[in-house]
């Protein structure tokens, strides 16, 4: 069933049809995976162009992205509750575009890494707020159905993203991968801005409070079971991050898979997701 409102102004029925809504939300949540995995085939070329001597330094292009996401999610969670879902998504996509431009014109590794952190911070906006939009409009079985459709797309994107990046490299340079991010981010922002109305009315928003943040943080950090699962997931995710960061080096430079790297990566992705879940 649709989520019932506590006030007369709250949206009680999604403005978009199920197919369009799922496609839009899936695209926004998948921008993270696309921004990470599409870069993998280009790491060696980026390293050569930026004069990176140590191969492992190119792994920072992937690993620092997760640091930017961590800070971005801490910021955009409260912001989406304070200023609304549309503000969080549109502002996040703008920051994502700025980061993409910085990366596109980077001439040193330092500038590239700064751009990647900015990218990651921005893409956290649509990633976090899209889930909030879903919760604002659906509950129960309907929400589970929407989330299952979105997860199907979310799993497919990491499989296909390296092939997307490799296809761009066959015709252009690594700079055009960031051009593709710009275009995809722009189209996503326009689609969302035109078609999806705000789902959190002003009278239901929660103003940001440092005091409340401190209280919530203290509760989480002192809850033994929560911290146990957090540490466990951190250890699992650490292995996942190491695999993602080093996969291009392992497959292309150690096993010499060349342009077949995206194929091997795609074949192993379902196994990886199964282990993580």
How many strand elements?
A: 0
N- and C-termini, Cα separation: 27 Å
| SS strand fraction | under 5%
Please, how many domains?
A: 1
Q: Return the CATH class.
A: Mainly Alpha
Please tell me the overall pLDDT: 88
Low-confidence stretches: 1-9
Task: Summarize the helix and strand pattern as letters.
Answer: HHHHHHHHHH
The CATH topology comes to: Growth Hormone, Chain: A
Find the CATH superfamily: MFS general substrate transporter like domains
Q: What is the rounded Rg?
A: 20 Å
Main sheet summary: none
Helicity range = over 70%
How many helical stretches?
Answer: 10
Q: Structural class, judged by helices and strands?
A: mainly alpha
The geometry reads as: globular
Compact summary:
With 277 residues, this protein is mainly α. It is built from 10 helices and no strands. Helix 1 (18-37) runs antiparallel to helix 7 (175-195), helix 3 (60-83) runs parallel beside helix 5 (109-137) and helix 9 (224-254) runs antiparallel to helix 10 (261-276).
């Amino acid at each position: 069933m649709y989520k019932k409102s506590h006030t007369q102004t709250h949206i009680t029925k999604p403005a978009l049809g199920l197919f369009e809504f799922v496609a839009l939300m899936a695209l926004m949540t998948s921008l993270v995976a696309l921004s990470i995995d599409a870069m993998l085939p280009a790491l060696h070329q980026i390293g050569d162009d930026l004069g990176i001597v140590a191969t492992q330094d190119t792994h920072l292009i992937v690993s620092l992205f997760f640091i930017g996401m961590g800070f971005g999610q801490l910021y955009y969670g409260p912001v989406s509750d304070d200023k609304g879902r549309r503000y969080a998504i549109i502002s996040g996509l703008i920051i994502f575009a700025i980061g993409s431009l910085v990366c596109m014109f980077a001439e040193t590794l330092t500038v590239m890494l700064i751009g990647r952190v900015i990218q990651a911070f921005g893409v956290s906006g649509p990633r976090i707020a899209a889930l909030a939009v879903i919760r604002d409009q659906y509950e129960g079985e309907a929400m589970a159905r929407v989330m299952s459709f979105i997860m199907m797309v979310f799993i497919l994107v990491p499989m296909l993203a390296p092939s997307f990046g490799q296809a761009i490299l066959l015709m252009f340079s690594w700079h055009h991968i960031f051009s593709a991010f710009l275009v995809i981010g722009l189209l996503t922002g326009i689609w969302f801005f035109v078609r999806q109305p705000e789902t959190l009315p002003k009278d239901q928003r929660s103003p940001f409070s440092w005091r409340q943040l401190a209280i919530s943080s203290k509760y989480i950090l002192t809850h033994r079971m929560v911290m146990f699962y957090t540490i466990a997931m951190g250890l699992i995710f650490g292995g996942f991050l190491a695999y993602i960061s080093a996969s291009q080096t392992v497959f292309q430079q150690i096993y010499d898979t060349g342009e077949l790297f995206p194929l091997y990566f795609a074949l192993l992705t379902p196994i990886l997701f199964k282990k993580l879940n």
